[in-house]
């Protein structure tokens, strides 16, 4: 490791130690301060490969991701309860401190997905796995981007779904288009074939093995040709969220797009398409496609295609200075 990477690891370990000593990770002055420090530490584009770090640092990272997941859940629960106290909760979403990040992330995901639609293939039925008590991605996508689609939100926690339903129940439009299912996605089989797009939340599968099982389950039961939208992490941001390796972790899918933000949007985004036939899924990931695939898949071949997945940093569909205007335009469309 170079000096920059060593300083980063030292700082992250120090913050992790402080977080571990807190009695609770519920929103508070100390919790907010430490997580703000952690995010600001991990945000710069430091070229660090967390998979090559010493075991003690790997163990610390695993612990830290779980702490981040717990804190994120508590934060969302707190604000979902607060929003639920309003007569029209969706009119007050901006009180959530990271609402603007969700606007940007959802616009990014919609833009990447749109590259792989045709006019006749705009999705009507979308699933979000791991929606939680504050399903902002589904709400933003349903409100501004997929304004005719139905959203089926899956979460294993009944209280999370109860809080989430409370947020949309008073809205005459979203209450008819958003549904909440309390179940483990590993128990959903034939139902997954109904969706043209499936979103997988970053914190569904807190380690590589667990996330791999979920992805394999989706590969087995999603409809052929359906799109999978995954959230991952890159560089130092991998101390905050689990990594999905587009070259090795997406068996059964063709990787279409990979994007690593360099701004305050923390999550990397991967778009993949379920192979149309069982034969196709025997191929290794064959690179990164950044233009819409042809209507019919190429003839299957038994040769192994070397992975050439690359990182795209230059293209950024988000114009920070015109976010409101862009959302307005998307809403009109």
From TrEMBL:
Keywords: S-adenosyl-L-methionine, Transferase
Coiled coil location: none
Domain of life: Eukaryota
Region (Disordered): 279-300
Gene Ontology MF, one: nicotianamine synthase activity
Leading EC class: transferase
Any one GO BP annotation for this protein: nicotianamine biosynthetic process
Catalytic function, reaction form: 3 S-adenosyl-L-methionine = nicotianamine + 3 S-methyl-5'-thioadenosine + 3 H(+)
InterPro entries: Nicotian_synth, SAM-dependent_MTases_sf
Record-listed E.C. numbers: 2.5.1.43
One Pfam family from the record: NAS
Biological role: Synthesizes nicotianamine, a polyamine which serves as a sensor for the physiological iron status within the plant, and/or might be involved in the transport of iron.
Family statement: Belongs to the nicotianamine synthase (NAS)-like family.
Name of the featured protein: Nicotianamine synthase
Species of provenance: Dillenia turbinata
């Amino acid at each position: 490791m170079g000096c920059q990477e060593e300083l980063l690891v030292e700082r992250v370990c120090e913050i992790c130690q402080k977080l571990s000593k807190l009695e609770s990770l519920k929103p508070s002055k100390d919790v907010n301060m430490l997580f703000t420090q952690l995010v600001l530490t991990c945000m710069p584009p430091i070229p660090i490969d967390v998979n090559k770090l010493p075991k003690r640092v790997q163990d610390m990272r695993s612990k830290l991701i779980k702490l981040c997941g717990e804190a994120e859940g508590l934060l969302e629960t707190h604000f979902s309860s607060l929003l639920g106290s309003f007569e029209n909760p969706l009119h007050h979403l901006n009180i959530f401190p990271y609402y603007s990040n969700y606007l940007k992330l959802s616009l990014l995901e919609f833009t990447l997905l749109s590259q792989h639609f045709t006019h006749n293939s705009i999705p009507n039925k979308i699933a979000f796995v791991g929606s939680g008590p504050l399903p902002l991605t589904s709400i933003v996508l349903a409100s501004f981007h997929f304004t005719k689609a139905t959203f089926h939100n899956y979460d294993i926690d009944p209280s999370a779904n109860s809080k989430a339903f409370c947020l949309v129940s008073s809205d005459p439009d979203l209450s008819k288009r958003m549904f909440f299912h309390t179940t483990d996605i590993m128990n959903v089989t034939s139902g997954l074939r109904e969706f043209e797009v499936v979103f997988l939340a970053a914190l569904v599968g807190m380690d590589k093995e667990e996330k791999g099982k979920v992805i394999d389950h989706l590969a087995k039961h999603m409809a052929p040709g359906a799109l999978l939208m995954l959230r991952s992490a890159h560089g130092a941001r991998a101390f905050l969220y689990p990594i999905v390796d587009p070259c090795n972790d997406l068996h059964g899918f063709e990787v279409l797009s990979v994007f690593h933000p360099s701004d305050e949007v923390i999550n990397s985004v991967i778009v993949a398409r379920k192979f149309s036939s069982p034969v196709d899924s025997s191929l290794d990931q064959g690179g990164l496609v950044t233009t819409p695939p042809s209507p019919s898949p190429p003839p299957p071949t038994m040769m192994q295609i070397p992975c050439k997945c690359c990182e795209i940093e230059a293209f950024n569909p988000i114009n920070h200075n015109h976010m409101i205007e862009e959302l307005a335009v998307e809403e009109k469309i």
